[in-house]
Design brief:
Blueprint lengths: L1 H30 L4 E17 L2 E16 L17 H28 L3 E10 L4 H5 L6 E5 L2 E2 L3 H10 L5 E7 L2 E7 L12 E7 L2 H27 L11 H18 L1 H22 L7 H14 L5 H31 L2
Antiparallel strand pairs: 1-2, 3-8, 4-5, 4-6, 6-7
């Protein structure tokens, strides 16, 4: 039964994320006077379709994608409402709109997540363990951590992230104590593991301000982590085998569904957090300058702005087609590795 609910949850999440993304392109295109031939959820054969005005709204058999078919998107057109005949700034807005909607969805879900909490953990120290790095550095209960190795701390996630990025040497922490800012130095030694700071953080009653702050800060944090992970992957700091595709994501959704069945709302919050990470990841990843992704199209639009004339849509379309084929190949490889992970642990 859990397998059935996992499938339902996975399909629902994927469909919502894709719908929101394509809705961004659709609304921007309609608002800026570009002809939309079809707005589709899913891929493959059409199982439902209804035409309203110039646009066909359809649902297709396989819930693995979706599209917003625009006039003049990949080829020249004499239609005044064709995307290819619009100014570069119009193309840019329409292209960015999909990713923007995914990030916006993540932000709204974070508001929902934090708004449901009675208390939240804040970057204020509650206790300091004896003989710990924190005690040796002079940290005290009541200190608010505002910087870690020069990086601003907005939420507890920032503390955990910067702590994990700290791999050697001393670390500088700036705390606020009684209205005064103090710079303290964390010095690991042989008796204390570097990853153990020796502090616990304070819980505070939730408020509208904390909900809004944590929502915006976590959205920015997730975006930073996604970009940082991509850079680390390119530099070889992260193994290619650690990447997850649809199979791995469905496995994670299955775990969250099981936790929801066992723990109720607390488990559902984990499923909600996974959805938040997925939608922000979809938005940010789509902005990477890779052919076939929105970021690849943005690159060509920026080239058009610099050259003051567009590249031939057919040539650009060919680049995106090749990029799409490579992405499909990459997806197959990642899916294969995901399947291996399920059977080889």
């Amino acid at each position: 039964m859990t397998g059935l609910w996992t499938a339902v949850a996975a399909i629902l999440i994927f469909c919502i994320l894709i719908f929101v993304h394509e809705l961004g392109h659709f609304l921007a295109a309609k608002g800026l006077g570009v002809r939309v031939h079809e707005f589709a959820i899913g891929m493959g054969p059409k199982i439902f379709g209804k035409r309203k005005g110039e646009t066909l709204y359809s649902v297709r058999l396989f819930p693995i994608g979706g599209f917003c078919a625009l006039e003049g998107e990949d080829k020249s057109s004499e239609d005044d409402k064709a995307l290819s005949n619009k100014p570069a700034w119009v193309k840019l807005i329409i292209t960015v709109a999909g990713a923007f909607m995914n990030v916006l969805l993540g932000l709204l879900l974070l508001f929902l997540l934090y708004g449901s909490m009675k208390t939240v953990v804040v970057p204020e120290i509650a206790t300091v363990a004896p003989a710990s790095m924190a005690e040796a550095a002079g940290m005290l209960p009541g200190d608010t951590v505002i910087r870690f190795n020069g990086k601003r701390i907005n939420t507890v996630r920032d503390i955990y992230w910067e702590k994990d990025q700290w791999t050697k040497g001393n670390a500088e922490i700036v705390v606020k104590r009684g209205g005064e800012k103090l710079s303290l130095t964390l010095s690991p030694n042989e008796q204390v593991e570097q990853n153990i700071l020796g502090i616990t953080l304070q819980k505070k009653d939730n408020s509208f301000w904390l909900t809004v702050k944590n929502g915006f800060c976590d959205t920015a944090f997730y975006g930073k982590v996604i970009l940082s992970s991509f850079v680390d992957l390119i530099q070889g700091k992260i193994a290619f085998s650690s990447m997850s595709g649809p199979v791995g994501i469905v496995s994670e959704i299955g775990t969250a569904v099981e936790e929801t069945a066992q723990n109720g709302w607390e488990g559902f919050m984990n499923l909600l957090q996974l959805t938040i990470l997925l939608t922000i990841n979809l938005g940010v990843f789509n902005l990477l300058p890779i052919p076939a992704l929105d970021g690849g199209r943005i690159f060509f639009i920026l080239v058009e702005m610099i050259r003051r004339k567009p590249l031939p849509p057919e040539k650009e379309g060919m680049v995106h087609l090749i990029g799409f084929a490579l992405l499909i190949l990459l997806s197959i490889v990642i899916a294969y590795m995901d399947v291996l992970k399920l059977f080889v642990k």
